[in-house]
Amino acid sequence: MARRFPLVILTGAGISAESGLPTFRGAGGLWEGHRVEDVATPEAFARDPDLVLRFYDARRRALARVAPNPAHAALARLEAAWEGPFLLVTQNVDDLHERAGSKKLLHMHGELLLVRCVRCGFRARLPGDLSGRPCPNCRARPGLRPDVVWFGEIPHGLEEIRAALERCALFAAIGTSGEVYPAAGFVEEARAAGAHTVELNLEPSRTSRLFAEHRFGPASRVVPAWVDELLARS
Ligand code: OAD
User: Which of 109, 156, 196, 214 is catalytic?
Assistant: First the structure.
């Protein structure tokens, strides 16, 4: 088959791990030393905006110190070579896919570098720290928050993702633990559409048994190898 069948790829924190960004579910279930409820919910922001903003400021600053790795680059190369429908859905809020050259990219959990004001709805790509900073539009403080999807909020682009899953012939999930829905359910939607399903991860994920094919190992090794194979046989 030519490089024309519809492809959907889902990525998670594991693809950015070798770039130096920590994954979410390390030992102890803490997220960089914080309980998720303390830093990644609308209630946490209402209760202690400064703690939440300082946590995200540290993560925004960390982006300047990291670079895409060969797994991000391989997916950009795949997209450039692919002639059929292609959608890269990432749960990651970092910008490493776009820095590697990916274009047909949907950030379903938002983006760290985007901010929005909870008071006036102002939305922009703003560099620099957010803690203590008034909204440039309405001057509310706190008003600005990172435009990321917190627990209890609805992920972005679900309609577009579901439409792509319904017609896809190949679905690959890369570097994701399968712990967080709705992304963890995409494999079942792809299977229902008759797609071939591949998991590329360091170890079996929670939903591993739902995939038809598995490639275990670090993303910087298994993703470029899988892309090479796919391009060679398609
Ligand atoms: P997790 O931290 O839950 O899972 C990361 C996965 O990557 C694990 O299965 C690891 O085994 C795997 N992994 C680690 N290093 C790897 C490497 N070098 N190569 C390949 N795989 C590797 O991260 P996500 O599944 O992305 O949501 O988490 C999903 C969501 O939970 C996040 O988007 C975030 C979080 O709460 C929100 O913020 C809404």
Answer: 109
Tell me which residue has its CA closest to atom 31 in ligand 1.
Answer: 180
Taking alpha carbons only, the member of 123, 118, 139, 142 closest to residue 131 is 142
One-letter amino acid at 56 equals: Y
Q: How far is the CA of 205 from the centre of ligand 1 (A)?
A: 9
**pTM for this model (two decimals):** 0.96
Q: How many CB atoms lie within 10 A of CB 182?
A: 13
Chain CA centroid to CA 46, Å: 25
Q: In what order do the strands lie in the sheet with 170-174?
A: 105-107, 86-90, 7-11, 170-174, 196-201, 213-216
Q: What is the mean pLDDT of each run of 10 residues along the chain (234 residues)?
A: 88 96 70 80 94 94 96 98 97 98 98 97 96 96 96 96 98 96 98 98 97 98 98 92
The β-bridge partners of 123 are: 116
